[in-house]
Amino acid sequence: MAGRTxxxxxxxxxxxxxxxxxxxxxxxxxxxxxxTRAARGLDVHNDSDDDQSEIKEIDEDNFPPITKxxxxxxxxxxxxxxxxxxxxQSQCYAAYNPPYISERRDKNKRRMLAYPCKTCExxxxxxxxxxxxxxxxxxxxxxxxxxxxVEDSQKxxxxxxxxxxxxxxxxxPQLCAIWCTEGxxxxxxxxxxxxxxxxxxxxxxxxxxxxxxxSEIGRLYTAVQESLIESLHKHTGALYLGLDAWQSPNGLxxxxxxxxxxxxxxVVVEKFGVQNKxxxxxxxxxxxxxxxxxxxxxxxxxxxxxxxxxxxxxxxxLNLIAQAILRPFGSHQVTTFENEEYEDLDxxxxxxxxxxxxxSDQDEEDTGPLVAELVEDDKxxxxxxxxxxxxxxEEDDAYTSESCRRTLAKFRAIARKLxxxxxxxxxxxxxxxxxxxxxxxxxxRDVRTRWNSTLLQLKSILRCSDAIRLGTLRQYHITNADITxxxxxxxxxxxxYEITLQVSIxxxxxxxxxxxxxxxxxSHLSSAISNEQHAYPPALRNACQGGLQLTNKYCTxxxxxxxxxxxxxxxxxxxxxxxxxxxxxxEWIDEAIRHTREMWETNYKPSxxxxxxxxxxxxxxxxxxxxxxxxxxxxSSHRVQLYI
Length: 644
Known about the structure:
Low-confidence stretches: 1-58, 331-388, 622-635
Mean pLDDT: 74
Shape: extended
Protein name: DUF659 domain-containing protein
Organism: Puccinia striiformis f. sp. tritici PST-78
Largest sheet: 3 strands, antiparallel
Oligomer: single chain
Structural class: mainly alpha
InterPro entries: RNaseH-like_sf, Vacuolar_transposase_reg
Strand order of the largest sheet: 1-2-3
């Protein structure tokens, strides 16, 4: 031992430093081994496959070809490894799937065995000459440790807690404006205590006022106009306007006359430069809208043809038909001024679904007429044939028009009493429990501007009829005739309610469905009027006659519009088959197909492209499949042309 001397570590040569394989800091060479790894910034606790670092690999380009003898030896070693794996001579083998021969080579340029880990699914390689499971055991320990660390240090995202990015205080007004506009939310919602509690602290500290949010929306609208105008100019095809001047911030300072509305629409359309692309306008059926359509026609936009291209809001049409049915059962007559006022109510308010929020309405049914009386007299004009078809009411009928008025008045009085008297409401609920009435134990209120609230009130009366008969005063006592009326009227109104739901759901309403819906309503009302099964008394059949007359009016307007017929032809399920099933005249069917072809060729058919140049002697492509000329039409334009 005394004669031995320590050898100083050799300094790396310049060739080694410049070889590009591994650069080592010269100052680290003289450091102790346990400090060198830390000085390099390496993790001294890195346990990621220590066993793999011991395996020296070579460049794959230098691999010699595998001979048959070597292939046989490798398969023998694999068979031995399978036997050892099956025998489970070491517990670590249970953490791996069966081994296979990998293409990776060891230092002897021989292929290695790979053991896929069941936990991380990584293949752990081992030379065939090495029968020790040491490297496999190390990886199992490393894998289990990593898995345990992940379980102990669970991220907040796994618990449903997600962070938010930092918000610039200057962006808060814009973010609030976008939040209000995207969901059509009122500005006052920003200051509600419940909303502030879930807002970002930066937003709460810099929350803008309602006036600032309103002005911010205007500035955002101005900022995006140029890009919007550019995108509209690039659009090839027709455009359709959806107008709702009662809900939108329209800037109209005067009265909403048809002329004034038309001038305002013209300013907006010409500002965006789309007057040559407007084909149709979607609106409700207010009288001033008809005047506006005629005024816009005078502007001579090339594609707009006036009333035939007016797409009427079908939800509003359903509302008017239901009003016509309920009108004979109103409690009192109203003046012409009141009729005009209610006729021009926003269609969205008239068809709005009855919800618990309407319970907070204050005595709407006390201060005005029922929704059944909101249709003007000139909306339902029965001709001589209609009058002759009306049935005479008899005293022995289950109910008459006069008794219907009294019955509906009793229903409204009961709903009002339960809404205003907590004691009566509690007693009513107790009786419903005793009688086994279905839930909910409440009577819906008949809001005058929403016809479907009448239907929901009738359904609630039928649902809780056993309890109502016991707990009402004598003047509001419900008889069998009242229940019969409620049941019959609910059957008549139910299809209107279901169709309104369909056309009110975003994305589900289709223009082609309007013709089908009108035919369904016509068949429904005609069956009730014919009374083949003697189901309804004359009072209700006469009311349905008024609804059918109004349905025929809008049916005629629909059939006169080419847009509805074009939509029917382009419908994949209808085409021209529905016209034949509905027994339309062949002349009408031919006209619908002609309108479709004209609209396609005028507005949507792309311009003809020059044929691509062909090679002198193109080599035929052998595919073994003969393609017909129809299948070679790959563009959508070809498919539409073949379709029509």
